[in-house]
Amino acid sequence: MTNIPVDDTLFVRSGPGSKNKAIGELPYNADGVRVQSCGSNGWCNVTYGCIQGYAFGRKYLKQSRGGHRSTEYLGYYSLVDVASNDTLNLRTGPGKSKYGDEYGVVAEIPYNATGVYVSDCEVKSGYKYRWCAVQWQNVSGWAYGRYLQNGAGQRPESGGLSGAVRSSGPSCDELWYERNSIFDRKGYCFKTARGKNTFDNSNCYTSNPTLTASEKNRVNELKSMESRMGC
To answer: DSSP code of 133?
Structure first.
């Protein structure tokens, strides 16, 4: 994604044109948007995780170099305050569209999920907390920030991250998860029990994934941080 302001999103519609119903939204820094085809009017059939539909691609969809553009909300979160007999819904868009339509539920996350990857969070009128674009194992969508908490004990409120602030850097677990999630997104089949339990090999397809240059650099950075911390 490119040319989208940091406080905006790209609508996904039910058909190739602005008059079709908005059925979802893509975060401004969405990475890994799959483009099936594009028409002469510039509208493209796209898939982003569990979100499928049509987006105007002529200006906004460009070939990715890998990785999300930076935002203060980027990182890994855990679910909080979700009842043990309940789940957290993931929707195709952040709450409701500007047309008043509530976005549909495309997936659910268990109440005690950890390692929920947030790429960005957006303010929506009428909500105290932001709506966040998230990925967890093989599902993705938009989750309400009320139930997301990062390693510093912060939640994504409308005015920014709120709550406790941790003085130290990321934990060994967070570094391990970020490093291995890069391989997971590339279809890697994990061999260790921890990898299998965390990422679920049901959709894996390779033991030798191909990483982009930026992904390789990030993996090396994470390994160095883990080594320095004695992880």
So the answer is: E
